Amino acid sequence: MGFGSYDESEQQQxxxxxxDDDDAAVNVHEHEYEGDVTVETGGSTDDLLGQLQEIKENxxx
Length: 61
Fold this sequence. Notes:
By secondary structure, the chain is an all-alpha fold. It contains three helices and no strands.
């Protein structure tokens, strides 16, 4: 076989659109969520930064 040659039997046996493809499809809308998310920390930024600093100091010990 030279450059650009191919086996014709391989070309004829390709499955162009089988039923198995439907099972492998990804539903991009499966986990959609419409709504709002709110988070209440209960502390000021300074309080939270202080807690973070304490955590970092305790890890170093």
